[in-house]
Amino acid sequence: MISSYIRNIHTGISDISYTGKTNSKQANVYQEALMAYEEIRPGIHHFRAREIGKTRNPNGTYSRITVGETYIETKRGLIREDEWAKIAYQMVVDNGDMPLLDAIENHVREHCVWLKEKEIRPYALECLTSEAYKAWKNFGGKS
Q: Is 114 inside any structural domain?
């Protein structure tokens, strides 16, 4: 299942969902998805600057125009951070772990005040897939 998540990144996350049918082939694929958190567990974050053009300075020299991209290292290789978040969220939805994700988000919102609101969900997804929440004291969510 994780292979189909990774293969279909560029086709759109809406194309990658469990249909809920109970035939044996899809049941096996879904069982693989239950074990797949290990496959996308975040490791090292890599930052790369990619050149997208050049600009001419007033003194006649050229400067590169770059855009930064963050990648997350997983067992399946490097995945762009925004794509990783989409894959992880879809896996949480497919596995029925939304109540746990909501509890982690609330805990992160309360205890990680330096995070902006848009950073809370990706951080909570990292905490869920890496099982960091299991080491938190006074965490009200169920594991």
A: no
Mean pLDDT, consecutive 10-residue stretches, the chain (143 aa), reads: 50 36 49 69 92 91 93 90 92 90 94 94 93 87 60
Q: Does residue 19 fall inside a structural domain?
A: yes
In terms of residue numbers, what domain contains 13? 2-96
Q: 21 in a domain, yes or no?
A: yes
Q: Total structural domains in the chain?
A: 1
pLDDT digit string, tens, across residues 77-116: 899 999 999 999 999 998 888 999 999 999 999 999 999 9
Q: Token pair for residue 127?
A: 């905490």
- CA distance linking residue 29 with residue 27, whole number of Å: 5
For 20, the token pair is 């809920």
